[in-house]
Amino acid sequence: MAVIEITKDNFETEVLKSDKKVLADFNADWCGPCKMLRPIIDEIAEEKENIKVVSINIDNEDELAEKYNVSSIPCLVVFENGNETRRSVGFIQKDEIENIIGE
Amino acid sequence: MYDIIIVGAGPAGLTAAIYARRAQKSVLVLEAKSYGGQIINTLDIENYPVEEHISGFDFATKLFNQAKALGTEVVFEKVVDINDLGNSKEVITTKNKYTGKAVILATGSENRKLGLSNEDELVGKGISYCATCDGAFYKGKVTAVVGGGNTALEDALYLSDIAAKVYLIHRRDEFRAEETTIEQLKNRENVEFVLNSSVTKLNAEDRLSSIEVTNKDGSVRNIDVNGLFVAVGRIPENQNFARLVDLDDAGYIKAGEDCKTNCAGIFTAGDNRIKEVRQLVTATGDGAVAATNAIKYINSL
User: Fold this and answer.
1) Which of B30, B31, B34, B159 to mutate to test the interface with A (most CBs of A within 10 A)?
2) What are the pLDDT digits (tens) for A38-57?
3) B126 to chain A: closest CA residue
4) Do B133 and A33 touch (CB under 8 A)?
5) What are phi and psi of A29, to 5 degrees?
6) Rounded CA gap, B219 and B38, in Å?
């Protein structure tokens, strides 16, 4: 599946009420490491059918960034049944992402 | 067996790869994180010849693609050790072993930390090492910068445009920075200098809420902050090679403009070498020199 763009309007449905585990990528257009990470995020979204991968642009969605205490990006947050279970800040390699999503 | 193994895919390492490939040498680049090194955090590069403006990400991506197009192999694995086998070197990563006739160490440097107990767990929760990366999260908030060099002062200046308040904490009463930057900062109404002082404690629940600052005279002050930007310098990433190559007291590889280390067949390039000016253009310059000398070395074997 492709990465789903999240706004505060679809956050609850797509992330908090998701049946699948969610990998949320908090990012911004001006953030170099975020751009480095994006192709890997896209790969994970395509490869892992049991994981929903979403992208949250912190400039457009500053309320969500604030609510989840995101103050450094790239920031990957794993949600399960509406709750945050893992978090990683900064660029990481694919195997490390697989590790935080438990794959 | 590769001709040249390059450790680090920053500007120095990738430039070395370009020179080595153009000389028909086989090249493996090993990188622990992402290609580009610390330049990917720079929003706008204005001092690299020819390009008036280019983002760090675009610069790094163009350089990476150029090196790849010339036939450079890149593997994302962290190098943990190197063995000198005489006419070849064995490079050990967390996953594999590779052999090369010559090695170029272009590992760069990483942010120096304050060394406080809960610092690591607060990264991304109020602690940052990059104002241009994370400043946007502090619109209208209270921030502090710790450090006394150019980076710290430029960070404070940058943040003063975004944040409601910026404390600049420095352990001495004078700065090691450009006079114009210091003057600019003094004129900012929302910047408060906290001199002769060190950050001694980070107070946090879910995220950073305040910092304890201790003055040289022993007095202690608690400052409420939403964010603390640490700019106390960088440390070279040479720890894994200390057994093989000579380092200075600060941990930089002892090598001159020829980029040769004390160990035959091992070269160095970029920020992890002893040098006066650590800039993008000096890193790429080093890459060219290190590759050229590595090629000469290989041809002499």
Assistant:
1) B34
2) 999 999 999 999 999 999 99
3) A71
4) yes
5) -65, -30
6) 37
- pLDDT tens, position by position, B84-116: 999 999 999 999 999 999 999 999 999 999 999
Cα–Cα distance measured from residue B263 to residue B245, given in angstroms and rounded to the nearest whole number? 6
B18 lies in some domain:
yes
CA distance B268 to B294: 10
Per the CB < 8 Å rule, is B124 touching A58? no
Q: What is the CATH number of the domain that holds B68?
A: 3.50.50.60
Residue A21 in domain: yes
Query: Which of A15-24, B36-45, B128-137 is the most confident on average?
Result: A15-24
- B128 to chain A, any CB pair closer than 8 A? The answer is yes
Is A69 inside a domain boundary? yes
How far is C-alpha B254 from the geometric centre of its chain's CA atoms?
18
Torsion of CA B197, B198, B201, B203, to 10 degrees: 60
Q: Which of B33, B124, B134 sits opposite A91 (nearest CB)?
A: B33
Please give the positions of B annotated as active site: 130, 133-134
Structural domains counted in chain A: 1
Q: What domain range includes position B144?
A: 120-230
B34:A75 CB<8 A: no
- C-alpha angle A71-A91-B225 in degrees, rounded to nearest 5: 20
User: Is-contact A96 A30, C-beta < 8 A?
Assistant: no
Nearest to B57 among A32, A89, A90 (CB): A32
Nearest to A24 by CA among A36, A44, A9: A44
Nearest CA in chain A to B59: A32
Gap between the Cα atoms of B242 and B151, Å rounded: 28
ipTM for the whole complex: 0.86
Measured CA to CA in angstroms, residue B132 lies from B151, B156, B194, B230, B251 at distances of 11, 10, 22, 12, 27
pLDDT tens-place string over residues B245-255: 999 999 999 99
Cβ-defined contact of A71 to B34 (cutoff 8 Å): no
Do B124 and A72 make contact, defined as CB atoms within 8 angstroms? yes
Q: Would you call B31 an interface residue with chain A, using a CB distance cutoff of 8 Å?
A: no
CB neighbour list of residue A2: distance below 8 Å, 6 or more residues apart: A42, A45, A46
- Is residue A69 a contact partner of residue B207, using CB atoms and an 8 Å limit? yes
